[in-house]
Amino acid sequence: MKIVILTSNSFRHKYIANVLSQNFDLKLIITEKKSQLIEDVSDLEDDDKTFVKNHFEQREKKERAFFNDYQQFPEVPFIQVNDGEINSEFVFEEIKKNEPNYIILFGTSIIKNPILDFFDGRIINLHLGLSPYYKGSATNLFPILFKDFEAIGATIHLATEKVDDGPILHQLRPQIEIYDSLHDIGNKVIEKAGIELPKIINLFGNGDLKGVKISGQGILCKNKDLTIEKLRKIYENVNHKTLKIFLQNYKSRCAEKPIIENI
Predict the structure, then answer these.
(1) pTM score of the predicted model
(2) For the chain, which end, N or C, has fewer CB atoms within 10 Å of the first or last residue's CB respectively?
(3) Given a cut of 90, is residue 114 above it in pLDDT?
(4) Angle at the Cα of 119 from the Cα atoms of 169 and 9, rounded to 5 degrees
């Protein structure tokens, strides 16, 4: 099965690319640089600047710890594009040259036409978040803001024009433990997704799995809405007491937000 992945360039993205390379004929990796605005702290007060810098430093440190065995992308053809260029004609033509059975998306900007139309039904997105409960960006952070730990996870779905709205192939939740940190939880989602994604691709490719369309509005999350005050609250909400309460009521809490599990 021939695969092309459109992704970014952090350790988590290298991990997923390596997993795909180990399980499929990975023909091409296209990485999109992240916007520098995400980590820009130039306009912040000193306390906020320190807090945000520490947030990204801790995220990278923990990501390195989880995915230290995947410091490089696998040795397959590789193209890097700038932020906003993932939908360029150049990228489209490079993908077509490789004639993939499937395109896998993980961590890029929103994919648009002509890629969507040309590969309709063959683009699989690994979305960090549980649709339809949380859609958009930072979808494993916003649930913690509301102490909604049962809504943390990943959704593997077919990509459509509407963001995070395509038919769902599979969903998963991480194994949260009582002393987990914010970044432990996030990386556990990615780690588990790397184990289950190849199985889902095979099931779908063999015709043994159909996408399920789920209705429901949920919450549309945007990076611009993730204020520093909200991020501070998110950190505060990941503590021994809060996680203990969640884990004591795990089954009933998860039952309130059912997910589609095909493994």
Answers:
(1) 0.94
(2) C
(3) yes
(4) 75
